[in-house]
Every structure is written in C-alpha cells, then in structure tokens.
Specification:
mainly alpha, 10 helices, 0% strand, elongated
Length: 242
C-alpha cells in the first residue's frame, strides 16, 4: 500500500478496492496458524482506511482505521515484532490525530500522543534515526493540536522541543523536504506560543523557522501556506515591537 498515492478519483477507486480485498482476505487467513499474515493484512487495511478517511470529510473510515490498527497490534506485539509494533503505533497515531482534529474535546489527540510515544520506544534514534525523527515530528503535530485546545502552554512548548529533536536527524543535507516541512511545523508551534506569551522571543524564532522552510520548498501550494504563516508571525512581531 503506497501511503503517498495521489488524491484522484482513480486512487479512491483503488483504495476502496484494496479495502474490499483486505476485508475478504481476513475471512480466509487462519489467524492461529498465520498470525503475522493476519496482522499484516489488518495493518494494510488500517493504512488504506486512514488514507481514504483523511480525504473524506467524515470520521467513519478513520474510526475503522483505528480499529484495524488495534487489531494488528494484538499480533504485532512489542515482544514479537518490535519494529512492526512501532510502525503500527505510528499509523494508529496518525488516524487518531486526524480524528481528534475533526471531533471536539481532547481524548483522541491524547490517544494519538500516547501512540506516538509508544512508537518511539522502539523507533529509537540509534536503531532507526529517520523513523525516530518521523515519529518525533508526528508527536509534535499531535502535541501542537492538543495544545491549541488547552489554555496553557505546556503541550505547545513540548511540541517545539520534539520538532527540534526531529531536526537533529531530519537535516537539510539528508532529507531537505522533510527538514523544510518540520521547520514549518516548528514555526506553527512557536507562533502559537508567541500568541500566548509576552515578549518577542517565540515570534522571532517562528519567523526564522518559516524562512528556513522557504529556502527549500518550491511547490506553489507548499510555499503559499508557509508564506501565510510567516506574514502572520511578522505582523504580530511588528505589533509587539511598536
């Protein structure tokens, strides 16, 4: 399953076909005899549901994705298959984060944070540095979303910390596009902090992060989003300095 499949009517048909295939396969796989194959199919089902659910406006597909990931984790245990367990926890976190953004409250976002933290127990920096950085970046996204729904700044501050951690491995030289996207994410956390805290430090750091991202991003839709964020940060910074 290609997680980066293009968002086209044809790809939606492909995803629906894949979901049907995986559901059929689960009826034929003997879980007792082939637990790994069963878990792999549940994981792939969850991935397809998550991709389709992200493109749709509702939450039903995403809830099904969460269910499939939980099922996969029954056989992809940390003891038996630690990296598969971590991969599934990361995918579970993504589905929960999207659900949390579409639902009220913080329960789903808190569950997403927990799933990413779990993934990081096996996606260690020493074992899998880029996977570790990916999970750190995803954790930052969930923490930032959670922090925006709360009155305090603790989760926003932690989001900035984990984004900076991700950038230690997501370097510009190694993975320039991921580096730029994480810089933008860091900027959004710092901008949110800057809105809640006095002074200019966080806003200045947000501006620096956005400008760093723009050094690499070239696609118009990617640049437009970052430029909009940069404009807002600069405007707030100007107000604070006047």
């Amino acid at each position: 399953m290609d997680e980066k499949a293009k968002n086209t009517p044809e790809s939606a048909v492909f995803l629906n076909t894949a979901i049907e295939y995986y559901n059929r396969a689960l009826f034929t796989i003997d879980r007792t005899a082939h637990p790994e194959s069963w878990a792999t199919t549940q994981y792939n089902l969850g991935l397809a549901l998550k991709i389709l659910g992200e493109r749709e406006s509702g939450t039903e597909r995403l809830k099904e994705a969460v269910k499939a990931c939980h099922a996969a984790l029954e056989e992809y245990t940390r003891e038996r298959a630690p990296l598969d367990w971590a991969m599934t926890q990361n995918n579970l976190g993504i589905a929960l984060k999207i659900l949390g953004e579409r639902e009220s409250g913080t329960k789903r976002l808190e569950e997403a944070v927990a799933a990413y933290r779990a993934a990081l127990e096996e996606y260690t920096r020493e074992r899998a540095p880029l996977d570790w950085a990916m999970a750190q970046n995803n954790l930052g996204i969930a923490l930032k979303a959670l922090g925006e729904r709360e009155s305090g700044a603790e989760h926003l501050e932690e989001a900035a910390v984990v984004y900076r951690a991700a950038l230690e491995e997501r370097t510009r030289e190694r993975v320039p596009l991921d580096w730029a996207k994480t810089q933008n994410n860091l900027g959004t956390a710092l901008l949110a902090l800057g809105k809640r805290k006095n002074g200019t430090k966080h806003l200045e750091e947000a501006v620096a992060a956005y400008r760093a991202a723009l050094e690499v991003l070239s696609l118009p839709h990617e640049r437009q989003k970052v430029e909009t964020n940069l404009k807002e940060a600069l405007s707030l910074l100007k107000q604070r300095r006047s």
